[in-house]
Amino acid sequence: MTIEERFDKLELKLTRARFINRMLVVLGVGVLLVLWFFASGTLTDQDKVIDEVRTKSLTLVDDSGKPWASMGGDYGRVLLFFGENGNPRTWLSTTPVMLMFDENRKPRIRLSVEEDGPSLLLYNEDGSVIWEAPQD
Known about the structure:
The chain folds into two domains: about 45 residues; about 80 residues, Outer Surface Protein A, domain 3 (Alpha-Beta Complex), CATH 3.90.930.1. Helix content is about 30%, strand content about 35%. It is built from two helices and eight strands, in the order ααββββββββ.
């Protein structure tokens, strides 16, 4: 191999190394720009706090999208908690009435405050009252 062939081979390697170096610089700058873009959009703790949220309904869901609590919406002025199977388990209303349901959506406990005082009713699986207070 002559000296000219060696210089040509070395020049080719140098050209390839410069090209790779330029591509790495461009890639590095691109990564820095993307990181800067995402970092500039990061909210501080103060930015996350708002004074008021106004909505007609609110549903809280788990990571899979299943609801576990709801306020308002189709149910009116109530706070509703859902069980693992998605059925309502506890219903708290502004009337004021609280209902607790079994897994089959049947009411089992009713606690209310009426004009004549508070009352508590316990139901069996058929929906019949099995105990109540105050006793009539």
